[in-house]
Amino acid sequence: MRSTLRRPCRLSLTWRVVALSSLLLVLLVGLFAWLVHANLTRQFETSRAEHGERQVREIRLALDRSEEGLRQLASLVASGQGLGDALQAGQPDLLVDSLETQWPTLQLEAGIDEILVYNTAGNQLASWGEGQSHNERPIQEWVRRVLGEEVPHTALRCSSDCRQYAAVPVLVDGRSVGAVILSRSLADVTRQAQQVSESDVALLVVGSPADKELPEERAIPAWRGQLIAMTRQETYLPILKSTASLVSVRELERQALRLGYRGKNIELSAMRMDEDEDRRSTGYFLIATDITSQIKAIARDTRVLLAVGVGGWLVAELLLLAILLSPMARLRRIASALPALAQGGFNEARASIPRPRRILADEIDVLQGTTLALADQLETLEEEVSARGEQLAERVQDLARERDFIGSLLDTARVFIVTQDASGRIGLVNDYALTIMGTGEAALVNRLFEDVFAPGQSYRGRPSDKPSMEERPLVTADGQQHTIAWYHAPLPGGNETAPGRISVGLDITERKAAETRLTWLAERDPLTGLYNRRYFQEALSGALQYGLSGAMLLMDLDQFKDVNELSGHQAGDRLLRLVANVLGEELGHRGILARLGGDEFALLLREADTDLAVRIAQQINQILEGTRFIVEERHHRISASTGIALFPEHADNPIDLMASADMAMYKAKASSTQRWHLLATAQGAREELQQRVYWEERVHHALEEDAFELVVQPIVRLEDRDVRHYEVLLRMRDEQGGLISPAAFIPVAERSGQIIAVDRWVLRHSLQALGRLQEQGISLAVNLSGQSLHDEELTQYLTEELDASGANPECLILEVTETAAVTDFSTARGVLQALRDLGCRTALDDFGVGFSSFHYLGQLPVDYIKIDGSFIRNLPVSAESRVIVRAIADIAAGFGKQAIAEFVDQEALVPILKSYGIAFGQGFHLGKPMSLEDAFSEDIS
After folding, report:
1. Which of 70, 143, 313, 652 would you call most buried, defined as having the most Cβ atoms within 10 angstroms of its Cβ?
2. Could you tell me the pTM of the whole model?
3. Percent of the chain scored above 70 by pLDDT?
């Protein structure tokens, strides 16, 4: 066993340290040498670039100096004695004589190649020297420019050679009489360029015809040019021809070229001179510099540095090896003893390891002492492990029994129990969870808890970071939906195991269903399933609170009471559900649709403008009109009156906005042209709402302070104009004592529900008056509103007031309108019959407005029929009205009821009414309304 652990060491630690340190040092030496070489190269490149720029500046400065010197020579020649006079006189002989003596000096000392003299007409009068071949010089253009501007002109022209030209005017008495042109080659400039650059220089002309006088070897076909001057031709010319095959002259101008030639490193660059004005040819200075010495110096320095680095590396490695040999030998002895120590050979290990030194001890001595102490401790530990093994076996048996107990507990618990590891993977699932989920344990173990029990919101992270309590949905194998409430607690792990988590889940599906139902009932109308008034008001309040704009549509079903009366309340409920369904299908996506109560519906439109609100109101009419509702073969027409209020234009709080919509809805009901109404303006809506609140307060005040006043209008028997019958009318006194018409406050009282109290006030005071008037055989007719027909305490109240006033019920006539009676026929018939049972007489007011009432006339217990005044007023001129009135009179007589004509405002109506058998009439012609005091002054007093 021990032999297998003692494997031969192929490479000792000493040599590994030497090898790695050698590798590191070699890399460092190489890197340092490379950095030094790169730095020297960069410095050399920078130096060469600066040198090249300096060369270009010096050459251009030499050209400028040569040009300025030529211009000054031309100015001296032009100002010579006799030249101006000869040009002014136009005598060529005198002109030649004035310059003939100067020509040799200018040619030899100043290097002038040519002198030209021109008169003001641009004609050449004299010349000295040779012109430039193969070059069409714009002499005439120079002459015209100089004579016209009277300033010198310089130019550079290149063909077979490159020359500088200077043209200056000849002035006599401040006036130009001619021009002098001097030319000079660039030979001197080329010599100066060689001296400045300390390099070989050549002058290249590109774009001009070849000069046959120049040697053929100076032609450079690749550059389409020829070398007109150069230094050291035998050395420089082969280099230029080799370079021409590699790069163009323009590339050489932009970037200097380095190449090797016959063991040397040459740097070539080009500098372009100013081009001709007509761009026929271009001259270049070509500069060749020998940089061999600089390149060799860089290479030499790099080699020296590399050699020094290698020498240092060898010295360092030898020194490191000498330091490590002795300590590493001691480490090898300790290493050879460790395998025996691992196999329990404690005595063998102690024998092979020497005792550590006490004087000048180092780390290896500490390691030797530690190894010996470890051998002692391991021997003691082995003895303890043997004793503890027996104890552990007994504990394992106890844990097995506890495990079996916990397993049976987990399987019998009626909750979900799941354990997870640190990564969230399932390790254990109890039987109850497997039974509910309808799956096996193998299908769940090692799966992520998040994948099996999907969270309501995605969560990724360690189990210990998750919430300790949460709810998650669960879909079982049979498709049933459950809601599980999970309670999580950390599950400690082992020494090397990250902590996990144990999760206990309770099935709260039934509780969540009950909570959902309660929430639904709190927000929904149980009959229609739409949102209820509370939810609608909260949504409206939220829209206003967040500053949104939009519209509220309030719908009230028309003739809904007819459905309840004729077909029963179950049919009414069916109608409400039908309306809710069709509106929800068509308009549910538009906004929040709610049933506010009874037959009122509301639609909240966010971010809706006026046009959209009106279109939807019109759409509601079309939807309801196209919906059929049939109950026991009885067809009911469905319609609704819709009030539209915009927010925040019409109101900035829910109460005022709903009041505005309610007001608009009532206006829609009163409209005869359309079934919807939009409040005109915000100011108008507020004023109308304020007026409504104002009149509600005025009615309330009048009820409390008896601020109403009764007036009466006689109902005349047409046969003898006898009056025993008066209709009681209501007025309100204002602050100045004037009377206010009921048209101002009765509609508000009807909408606010105050009309019942108003009816009772009128009944009480009318009965009090009747108690004093009945001795004279006077009867009073009192109007009841449609809402009073639904007052279950009306009969009891009337009985009590009859007893209190002592009035004879036979002298009291109670009137209800035809519309109120027909709208709720069953209720109206019951109330009228109850009133007749008390002894009172009854009348049907405004009869004839709706012809549907003819069908019910025989069934209503009334004594009088009051024909609507709109028919009576038009009797003299309308044949149709006469037919209708005669028919109503005949029907009333047929049912044993007496007819009363309203709005009799002229005498011509009386004979017509009498001819129809109408017994009574009422109108301004027969008697105007008057106060009780004026009508019955003696009886009242």
Report:
1. 143
2. 0.39
3. 91
